[in-house]
Amino acid sequence: MTAPTQELGSGRTDGQRPAVRLDAVSKVYGRGASSLLALDKVSLDAAQGEFVCLLGASGCGKSTLLNLVAGLDRPTTGTIETGERKIAMMFQEPALFPWLTVSGNIELALRVQGLDRTARRARAAELLDVVHLGGFAKKRPHELSGGMRQRVSLARALAQEADLLLMDEPFGALDAMTRDLLHDELERIWRERNLAVLFVTHNVREAVRLGDRVVLLSSRPGQVIEDYPVRLPRPRRTESAEVAELAGRITERLKEEVSRHGR
Ligand SMILES: Nc1ncnc2c1ncn2[C@@H]1O[C@H](COP(=O)(O)OP(=O)(O)O)[C@@H](O)[C@H]1O
Ligand SMILES: [Mg+2]
Protein backbone atom coordinates (compact mmCIF):
# COMPACT_ATOMS: atom_id res chain seq x y z
CA MET A 1 0.00 0.00 0.00
CA THR A 2 1.24 3.46 -0.81
CA ALA A 3 0.86 6.13 1.83
CA PRO A 4 -0.28 9.49 0.45
CA THR A 5 2.52 12.00 0.24
CA GLN A 6 2.06 14.60 2.94
CA GLU A 7 2.24 18.22 1.90
CA LEU A 8 4.29 19.92 4.56
CA GLY A 9 4.21 23.62 5.24
CA SER A 10 7.88 23.75 4.42
CA GLY A 11 7.40 22.06 1.07
CA ARG A 12 9.73 19.19 1.95
CA THR A 13 8.17 15.85 1.25
CA ASP A 14 9.85 12.57 1.79
CA GLY A 15 7.43 9.92 0.63
CA GLN A 16 7.02 6.98 2.94
CA ARG A 17 10.40 7.25 4.62
CA PRO A 18 10.16 7.74 8.36
CA ALA A 19 10.88 11.24 9.64
CA VAL A 20 13.61 9.82 11.81
CA ARG A 21 15.17 6.37 11.96
CA LEU A 22 17.70 5.15 14.48
CA ASP A 23 19.36 1.87 13.67
CA ALA A 24 21.32 0.11 16.43
CA VAL A 25 22.55 3.38 17.91
CA SER A 26 25.04 3.07 20.75
CA LYS A 27 26.81 5.84 22.59
CA VAL A 28 29.86 5.48 24.77
CA TYR A 29 31.13 8.49 26.71
CA GLY A 30 34.81 8.64 27.52
CA ARG A 31 37.48 6.00 26.96
CA GLY A 32 39.10 3.08 28.72
CA ALA A 33 38.30 2.22 32.31
CA SER A 34 36.20 5.33 32.89
CA SER A 35 34.08 4.89 29.76
CA LEU A 36 30.33 4.75 30.13
CA LEU A 37 27.81 3.05 27.86
CA ALA A 38 24.87 5.45 27.78
CA LEU A 39 22.85 3.92 24.92
CA ASP A 40 22.97 0.33 23.77
CA LYS A 41 21.80 -0.51 20.25
CA VAL A 42 18.70 1.63 20.21
CA SER A 43 16.54 1.15 17.12
CA LEU A 44 13.53 3.34 16.71
CA ASP A 45 11.65 5.25 14.07
CA ALA A 46 8.94 7.88 13.88
CA ALA A 47 6.79 8.79 10.89
CA GLN A 48 6.11 12.33 9.75
CA GLY A 49 3.07 13.43 11.73
CA GLU A 50 3.72 10.96 14.53
CA PHE A 51 4.07 11.93 18.19
CA VAL A 52 6.49 9.60 19.96
CA CYS A 53 7.17 9.91 23.68
CA LEU A 54 10.40 8.51 25.08
CA LEU A 55 10.03 7.51 28.68
CA GLY A 56 12.69 6.34 31.08
CA ALA A 57 14.26 6.83 34.47
CA SER A 58 16.67 9.69 34.96
CA GLY A 59 20.13 8.90 33.63
CA CYS A 60 18.93 6.30 31.13
CA GLY A 61 20.17 8.25 28.13
CA LYS A 62 17.12 10.20 26.95
CA SER A 63 18.95 13.50 26.50
CA THR A 64 21.83 11.66 24.91
CA LEU A 65 19.45 10.18 22.37
CA LEU A 66 17.88 13.54 21.50
CA ASN A 67 21.27 15.22 21.21
CA LEU A 68 22.33 12.55 18.75
CA VAL A 69 19.20 13.01 16.65
CA ALA A 70 19.74 16.78 16.73
CA GLY A 71 23.26 16.24 15.44
CA LEU A 72 24.80 17.90 18.50
CA ASP A 73 26.84 14.75 19.08
CA ARG A 74 27.59 11.58 17.12
CA PRO A 75 26.73 7.98 17.89
CA THR A 76 29.65 5.68 18.70
CA THR A 77 28.10 3.02 16.46
CA GLY A 78 24.87 2.78 14.51
CA THR A 79 23.16 5.25 12.23
CA ILE A 80 20.58 8.00 12.44
CA GLU A 81 18.66 9.16 9.40
CA THR A 82 16.49 12.24 9.29
CA GLY A 83 16.55 12.81 5.54
CA GLU A 84 16.62 16.48 4.60
CA ARG A 85 14.37 17.38 7.45
CA LYS A 86 14.83 20.53 9.43
CA ILE A 87 15.09 19.85 13.12
CA ALA A 88 14.22 22.11 16.04
CA MET A 89 14.95 21.36 19.66
CA MET A 90 13.34 22.56 22.85
CA PHE A 91 14.89 22.07 26.29
CA GLN A 92 13.61 22.06 29.85
CA GLU A 93 15.06 25.53 30.36
CA PRO A 94 13.75 28.02 27.81
CA ALA A 95 17.25 29.56 27.33
CA LEU A 96 16.00 32.90 26.02
CA PHE A 97 18.31 35.88 25.63
CA PRO A 98 17.40 38.10 28.60
CA TRP A 99 18.43 41.34 26.88
CA LEU A 100 16.13 40.76 23.91
CA THR A 101 12.38 41.24 23.94
CA VAL A 102 10.08 38.28 23.44
CA SER A 103 9.69 39.28 19.80
CA GLY A 104 13.45 39.81 19.47
CA ASN A 105 14.16 36.28 20.67
CA ILE A 106 11.95 34.87 17.93
CA GLU A 107 13.17 37.30 15.28
CA LEU A 108 16.68 36.05 15.91
CA ALA A 109 15.61 32.55 14.90
CA LEU A 110 14.03 34.01 11.76
CA ARG A 111 17.21 35.76 10.64
CA VAL A 112 18.72 32.62 9.23
CA GLN A 113 15.78 32.40 6.85
CA GLY A 114 16.85 35.64 5.21
CA LEU A 115 13.68 37.55 6.05
CA ASP A 116 14.03 41.32 6.26
CA ARG A 117 13.34 43.17 9.47
CA THR A 118 9.72 44.01 8.80
CA ALA A 119 8.92 40.48 7.68
CA ARG A 120 10.68 39.06 10.74
CA ARG A 121 8.66 41.23 13.07
CA ALA A 122 5.39 40.29 11.37
CA ARG A 123 6.23 36.58 11.42
CA ALA A 124 7.24 36.76 15.09
CA ALA A 125 3.87 38.36 15.87
CA GLU A 126 2.07 35.54 14.05
CA LEU A 127 4.02 32.91 15.96
CA LEU A 128 3.29 34.62 19.27
CA ASP A 129 -0.40 34.44 18.39
CA VAL A 130 -0.03 30.71 17.74
CA VAL A 131 1.23 30.20 21.31
CA HIS A 132 -1.34 32.65 22.70
CA LEU A 133 1.14 35.34 23.66
CA GLY A 134 -0.16 38.01 21.29
CA GLY A 135 0.16 40.94 23.68
CA PHE A 136 3.63 40.14 24.98
CA ALA A 137 5.94 40.92 22.05
CA LYS A 138 7.66 43.83 23.78
CA LYS A 139 8.13 42.20 27.17
CA ARG A 140 11.46 40.82 28.31
CA PRO A 141 11.78 37.19 29.43
CA HIS A 142 12.10 38.08 33.14
CA GLU A 143 8.67 39.74 33.00
CA LEU A 144 7.02 36.44 32.05
CA SER A 145 5.99 33.38 34.06
CA GLY A 146 7.74 30.05 33.53
CA GLY A 147 4.87 28.78 31.39
CA MET A 148 4.97 31.89 29.22
CA ARG A 149 8.71 31.59 28.75
CA GLN A 150 8.26 28.01 27.59
CA ARG A 151 5.67 29.25 25.11
CA VAL A 152 8.18 31.72 23.73
CA SER A 153 10.65 28.89 23.46
CA LEU A 154 8.03 26.84 21.58
CA ALA A 155 7.35 29.78 19.23
CA ARG A 156 11.09 30.05 18.61
CA ALA A 157 11.25 26.34 17.78
CA LEU A 158 8.32 26.79 15.39
CA ALA A 159 10.07 29.76 13.76
CA GLN A 160 12.63 27.31 12.45
CA GLU A 161 9.96 25.73 10.21
CA ALA A 162 11.13 22.33 11.37
CA ASP A 163 9.45 19.08 10.39
CA LEU A 164 10.95 17.24 13.32
CA LEU A 165 10.59 18.69 16.78
CA LEU A 166 12.77 17.31 19.57
CA MET A 167 11.60 18.13 23.07
CA ASP A 168 13.67 17.32 26.15
CA GLU A 169 11.40 17.40 29.21
CA PRO A 170 10.14 20.79 28.07
CA PHE A 171 7.39 21.10 30.68
CA GLY A 172 9.17 19.37 33.56
CA ALA A 173 9.56 22.55 35.59
CA LEU A 174 5.98 23.76 35.21
CA ASP A 175 3.01 23.40 37.54
CA ALA A 176 0.34 20.88 36.55
CA MET A 177 -2.21 23.43 35.36
CA THR A 178 0.21 25.28 33.10
CA ARG A 179 1.46 21.97 31.81
CA ASP A 180 -2.09 20.91 30.87
CA LEU A 181 -2.56 24.12 28.89
CA LEU A 182 0.71 23.65 27.05
CA HIS A 183 -0.16 20.04 26.27
CA ASP A 184 -3.34 21.27 24.56
CA GLU A 185 -1.42 23.89 22.59
CA LEU A 186 1.35 21.55 21.60
CA GLU A 187 -1.18 18.97 20.42
CA ARG A 188 -2.99 21.56 18.30
CA ILE A 189 0.25 22.81 16.72
CA TRP A 190 1.55 19.28 16.13
CA ARG A 191 -1.63 18.43 14.24
CA GLU A 192 -1.82 21.64 12.22
CA ARG A 193 1.79 21.33 11.12
CA ASN A 194 1.91 17.57 10.79
CA LEU A 195 5.13 17.53 12.82
CA ALA A 196 7.08 14.48 13.82
CA VAL A 197 7.76 14.87 17.53
CA LEU A 198 10.20 13.05 19.79
CA PHE A 199 9.17 14.07 23.28
CA VAL A 200 11.31 13.02 26.23
CA THR A 201 9.81 12.79 29.67
CA HIS A 202 10.03 10.81 32.89
CA ASN A 203 6.37 11.60 33.60
CA VAL A 204 4.31 8.54 32.62
CA ARG A 205 0.96 10.31 32.46
CA GLU A 206 2.38 13.08 30.34
CA ALA A 207 3.71 10.49 27.91
CA VAL A 208 0.30 8.79 27.66
CA ARG A 209 -1.51 12.15 27.39
CA LEU A 210 0.56 13.18 24.39
CA GLY A 211 1.99 10.20 22.55
CA ASP A 212 0.78 8.15 19.62
CA ARG A 213 3.35 5.77 21.04
CA VAL A 214 5.19 5.57 24.32
CA VAL A 215 8.64 4.07 23.96
CA LEU A 216 10.01 2.81 27.24
CA LEU A 217 13.77 2.87 27.76
CA SER A 218 15.62 0.69 30.25
CA SER A 219 17.90 2.09 32.90
CA ARG A 220 21.49 2.60 31.88
CA PRO A 221 22.46 1.66 29.33
CA GLY A 222 19.35 2.87 27.57
CA GLN A 223 17.69 0.21 25.46
CA VAL A 224 14.18 0.12 24.05
CA ILE A 225 12.25 -2.35 26.24
CA GLU A 226 8.65 -1.65 25.20
CA ASP A 227 6.84 0.32 22.53
CA TYR A 228 3.25 0.97 23.63
CA PRO A 229 0.76 2.22 21.05
CA VAL A 230 -1.67 4.68 22.66
CA ARG A 231 -5.02 4.17 21.00
CA LEU A 232 -7.03 6.54 23.18
CA PRO A 233 -9.03 9.21 21.35
CA ARG A 234 -7.77 12.79 21.41
CA PRO A 235 -7.86 15.22 23.00
CA ARG A 236 -7.03 13.26 26.14
CA ARG A 237 -7.15 14.47 29.69
CA THR A 238 -4.17 13.73 31.90
CA GLU A 239 -6.46 12.94 34.84
CA SER A 240 -8.86 10.70 32.88
CA ALA A 241 -9.40 7.06 33.89
CA GLU A 242 -8.18 5.80 30.48
CA VAL A 243 -4.90 7.69 30.72
CA ALA A 244 -4.49 6.55 34.33
CA GLU A 245 -5.07 2.91 33.42
CA LEU A 246 -2.40 2.74 30.72
CA ALA A 247 -0.05 4.93 32.77
CA GLY A 248 -0.49 2.47 35.64
CA ARG A 249 0.53 -0.47 33.48
CA ILE A 250 3.55 1.38 32.11
CA THR A 251 4.56 2.47 35.61
CA GLU A 252 4.53 -1.16 36.77
CA ARG A 253 6.85 -2.08 33.91
CA LEU A 254 9.09 0.87 34.68
CA LYS A 255 9.28 -0.10 38.36
CA GLU A 256 10.24 -3.64 37.41
CA GLU A 257 12.99 -2.22 35.28
CA VAL A 258 14.28 0.14 37.95
CA SER A 259 14.27 -2.57 40.66
CA ARG A 260 16.09 -4.91 38.31
CA HIS A 261 18.91 -2.37 38.39
CA GLY A 262 18.85 -2.19 42.19
CA ARG A 263 18.05 1.50 42.44
N1 LIG B 1 28.83 14.54 27.93
C1 LIG B 1 28.83 13.49 28.75
N2 LIG B 1 29.98 12.91 29.16
C2 LIG B 1 29.99 11.84 29.97
N3 LIG B 1 28.89 11.25 30.45
C3 LIG B 1 27.71 11.76 30.08
C4 LIG B 1 27.61 12.91 29.22
N4 LIG B 1 26.30 13.18 29.02
C5 LIG B 1 25.62 12.26 29.72
N5 LIG B 1 26.45 11.41 30.35
C6 LIG B 1 26.05 10.24 31.16
O1 LIG B 1 25.28 9.39 30.34
C7 LIG B 1 24.17 8.86 31.06
C8 LIG B 1 22.88 9.28 30.35
O2 LIG B 1 22.70 10.69 30.53
P1 LIG B 1 21.47 11.49 29.92
O3 LIG B 1 21.39 11.21 28.47
O4 LIG B 1 21.61 12.90 30.34
O5 LIG B 1 20.23 10.79 30.66
P2 LIG B 1 18.72 11.29 30.88
O6 LIG B 1 18.48 12.45 29.97
O7 LIG B 1 17.88 10.09 30.57
O8 LIG B 1 18.59 11.66 32.33
C9 LIG B 1 24.28 9.40 32.48
O9 LIG B 1 24.93 8.43 33.26
C10 LIG B 1 25.16 10.62 32.33
O10 LIG B 1 25.88 10.87 33.49
MG1 LIG C 1 17.87 14.41 30.37
TrEMBL record:
SMART domains: AAA (SM00382). Keywords: ATP-binding, Nucleotide-binding, Transport. Signal peptide: none annotated. SUPFAM superfamilies: P-loop containing nucleoside triphosphate hydrolases (SSF52540). Coiled coil: none annotated. GO terms for molecular function: ATP binding; ATP hydrolysis activity. InterPro entries: AAA+_ATPase, ABC_transporter-like_ATP-bd, ABC_transporter-like_CS, ABC_transporter_ATP-bind, P-loop_NTPase. It holds the Pfam family ABC_tran. Residues 20-244 form the ABC transporter domain. This is ABC transporter ATP-binding protein.
